[in-house]
Design goal:
Blueprint lengths: L1 E2 L6 E2 L7 H7 L7 H22 L5 H19 L35 E6 L14 H18 L5 E10 L9 E11 L2 E10 L2 E12 L6
Antiparallel strand pairs: 1-2, 3-5, 4-7, 5-6, 6-7
Family: Belongs to the THEM4/THEM5 thioesterase family.
Membrane topology: Peripheral membrane protein
Catalytic activity: octanoyl-CoA + H2O = octanoate + CoA + H(+); decanoyl-CoA + H2O = decanoate + CoA + H(+); (5Z,8Z,11Z,14Z)-eicosatetraenoyl-CoA + H2O = (5Z,8Z,11Z,14Z)-eicosatetraenoate + CoA + H(+); tetradecanoyl-CoA + H2O = tetradecanoate + CoA + H(+)
Length: 218
């Protein structure tokens, strides 16, 4: 067995990274519960830092001080880097936020064919005028729909396309409701849809296609 030096993916005799195995592995926590709690608390603190930074008008002195502090932390973490299968970031799939700060945190949905969750976007995801950036909304849809598929009895799949329609301004800092559902399955194709609401207002909706991965396919 060797390791891809760019991705950190383990390979067997030069074989490509197995995407199905990687997605199936996400259903198992990457560490004990105590570590999961500590990692979740850390990433929530990071999420709060990014929101505050996005809304702060700092001066030159603050910028220089933060850069130095971040550089120190980066240096300490470099010695702890691991390959993709061993990383913790985003792999706590049984916890809100999954231990990452890219996608806004939402409770892990319980449905198998459809599910709803609440979500609040912070200022880290703002576009302009306190409205959520459209790309952040699409990321949320992609993440939630992919998670719904992962919880179903269907084999692992990857996004083929995702179309997002922006119906109204999505506000920052307020609780929103997102609903996702698997609409139908045709062979290896899985068709899904989602909707993001602020009260009775539809802020955005989406429809997408996921395609089942073949064994050994990255």
């Amino acid at each position: 067995m060797s390791t891809d030096q760019q991705t950190g993916h383990a390979t067997e005799a030069g074989a490509p990274f197995d995407g199905r195995a990687a997605i199936e592995a996400l259903m198992v926590a990457p560490g004990p519960p105590a570590l999961g709690s500590a990692y979740q608390a850390m990433t929530e603190e990071l999420r709060g830092f990014l929101d505050v930074l996005a809304g702060a008008a700092i001066d030159t002195e603050h910028a220089a001080r933060l850069r130095a502090q971040l550089a120190q932390m980066t240096s300490r973490l470099r010695g702890l880097e691991v390959g993709e299968p061993q990383r913790l970031w985003g792999h706590w799939t049984d916890r809100p936020g999954r231990g990452q700060a890219l996608i806004p945190s939402y409770d892990v949905p319980k449905g198998s064919l459809e599910a709803s969750a609440t979500v609040t976007f912070g200022r880290f995801h703002v576009g302009e005028n306190m409205a959520v950036h459209g790309g952040a909304i699409s990321m949320l849809f992609d993440d939630l729909l992919g998670w719904l598929l992962a919880r179903s009895d269907l084999p692992p799949s990857r996004t083929a396309f995702l179309t997002t329609n922006f119906r109204a301004v999505t506000p920052v800092g307020v609780e929103l409701t997102v609903h996702a559902r698997i609409t139908h399955v045709e062979g290896r194709k899985r068709f899904l849809a989602a909707e993001l609401r602020h009260g009775d207002t539809v802020c955005a909706d989406a429809e997408g296609l996921w395609v089942e991965l073949r064994p050994g396919q990255p």
